Structures are given as C-alpha cells and as structure tokens.
Amino acid sequence: MINRVVLVGRITKDPELRKTQSGLSTVSFTVACNRRFTSQGQEPQADFINCVAWRQTADYMANYVKKGALLGVEGRIQTRNYEDQTGKRVYVTEVVCDSVQTLVRSNTEGQSNYQPSYQASAPADNSGYTPDSPTSYDNDFSTETLDIASDDLPF
Fold it and tell me: Superkingdom of this entry's organism (predicted)?
C-alpha cells in the first residue's frame, strides 16, 4: 500500500514548538495550497491542510520557518481520534511530515531569502560515493533510425 503526500504551499502562522512529556519536539501547522483550477470569475480557492512534524524537523521549523513561508512538505496521511474535555470523540486527519523544506523565493531586491532546509529522512550514506559530473540530457532522443526487424517487436 502507498501512503505518500507531497505538498507545496504557504504556512498560515508561525509554528510553535512544543515538547511531549518524554521531551520530544513537535510542531503542528497548517499549509495553504492553492487549488489548480477555479471557475471563471471566482477567486482562487485554497485547501488548508493540517500537518505535524517531530524531532529535528520540528526544531528546524521553530527556528527558521515564519508565517507565509513557502514550504515543500513530504510525509504520510495519518488519522487519529481522541476524547475531548466534554467527552466528545474528535477525529483528526493530518500529514505526518518526513521532510519539510523552505523553498527559494526572491525578495524585491533580487536577493534570495532562502533558509536552509531540513529533511528528517534516512541518515546520510557515507559510503564514499560521489556522483559524476552532471549528465547532459539535451540529446535524449536521437533522430537516427533504429534497425529493428518487425519480428523482434512484441506487438
């Protein structure tokens, strides 16, 4: 089964860092994502998606992310429920973040106000691999004809 979410949107308010009883850092926040299509004559609509980040990702957000920042969020959808103070059952659906990145946005002076990003994904693999120089993809499709017999084709 696949449960993967990728969002790009703006955070609706400054994140507030909280600590659990066991000392884990957590932050809950909402990302506003514009809908792709709107009806003619209507203003663009947005979806407000609740998210939660833990540990180092939460610490990063508390230090570097401010209201209105453009974020790239990766994670999974999780549902949970609890009983509130009045005894009513409350259901919550949220994105549990594996990775949160502040995305580059230029300010009016043409300088970038980019903040470092943090990904709470798998630890870095220090196996000594260094990628080769960037590959050129300019000539992905050659104009040369291929010499293939029709008997070699599966269809």
Answer: Bacteria
Residue-range domain boundaries for the chain: 5-37+44-102
Q: Is the per-residue pLDDT at 139 higher than 90?
A: no
Mean pLDDT (whole number) for 62-91: 94
- State how far the Cα of 132 lies from the Cα of 108, in Å rounded to an integer: 36
152: left (phi over 0), alpha (psi -120 to 50) or beta: alpha
Which CATH superfamily is 5-37+44-102 part of?
Answer: Nucleic acid-binding proteins (2.40.50.140)
For 75-102, what is the mean pLDDT?
94
Tokens of 47: 């979806």
